[in-house]
Amino acid sequence: MAFKLSFSSGASEELESKGDGKMKGLNLVFLGPPGAGKGTQAQRISEKFGLVWICAGDILRQAVAQENQLGKEVQEYLKRGELVPDQIVLSLIAGRLDEVEDGFILDGFPRTLGQAKALDKLLHDRTMDLSAVIFLDVPDEEIVKRLSARRICPNCGAVYNMIYKPPKKDEKCDRCGTQLIRRRDDEPETVRNRLRVFREQTAPLIDYYKKNGLLKKVNGVGMPDQITEKIEMVLQRLPLN
Ligand SMILES: [Zn+2]
Predict the structure, then answer these.
(1) Per-residue pLDDT averaged across 47-65, rounded?
(2) Cα–Cα 20 to 30 A to 128, which of 23, 85, 110, 239?
(3) Is 51 among the domain residues?
(4) Can you give the residue range of the structural domain that contains 111?
């Protein structure tokens, strides 16, 4: 086995606190650098285990689409190119959590230690807690390789990857034949910058989840199917299962 598992130190306490309340499913956070395959894995695992997939980016887009008060506020921030304040993101997530019956996967949130602590409070208020934090670990150079191999079609928006999902002919779109391009965000230098920001922001977060025994590191290098299997193995070995 290429990775070791350790059981949560807080396992016995967790079991006790579940004893008197209603039994809940898996409540997970997926962490990982951009390009680690977090979204793909979150989607697969949520389908397999019947969990609600709460993607922070989608929540913001949905809020804007709904055109209610909160949505209008979100749109103002996005329009100005500013970060949406934690308080707003949290209340949107709270709304989704209230619909959860059998567990959830949070993807794209929390990203900072402050957000992690706010999430704890949000869950605590709902007599929920996290079962595990899955950290998809992929080395920076592998991510640079993956993302810089990404191409998009400027005409129809189709997405390709010269390593994993190359177009049939040269660097031309299968659907419309247009010459594919690389987004500026996927240029190696830009990717390295995004990774630097990610590592700085999430290092305290990873420490925090390591200390409370929730962090489960999964090696995110390999084919998507293999990685899904590794995550499933981790989940099956969680004390609550
Ligand atoms: Zn195209």
Answers:
(1) 91
(2) 85
(3) yes
(4) 11-139+203-236
| Sign of the torsion formed by the C-alpha atoms of 51, 94, 216 and 25 | negative
Expressed in angstroms and rounded, the spacing between residue 39 Cα and the centre of ligand 1 is: 23
Q: Does 129 fall in a domain?
A: yes
| pLDDT of res. 240 | 61
195 contacts 140 by C-beta, under 8 angstroms: yes
8 Å CB contact between 199 and 117: no
In a domain, 167, yes or no: no
CATH number at residue 81: 3.40.50.300
Q: Write out pLDDT tens, residues 155-213.
A: 999 999 998 889 999 999 999 999 999 998 899 999 999 999 999 999 999 999 999 99
pLDDT per position as a tens digit, 144-164: 999 999 999 999 999 999 988
Mean pLDDT of 117-132: 95
* C-alpha span between 84 and 92 (Å, rounded): 11
- Has residue 159 been placed in a domain? no
Residue 36 alpha carbon to ligand 1 centre in Å = 25
Count of structural domains, the chain: 1
- The contacts of residue 203 (CB under 8 Å, 6+ apart) are none
Q: Which residues of 213-229 are buried (b: 16+ CB within 10 A; e: fewer)?
A: bbbbbbebbeeeeebbe
Instruction: Tell me, in angstroms, the distance from the centre of ligand 1 to residue 60's CA.
Output: 27
Q: How far is CA 15 from CA 18, 214, 241, in A?
A: 5, 14, 10
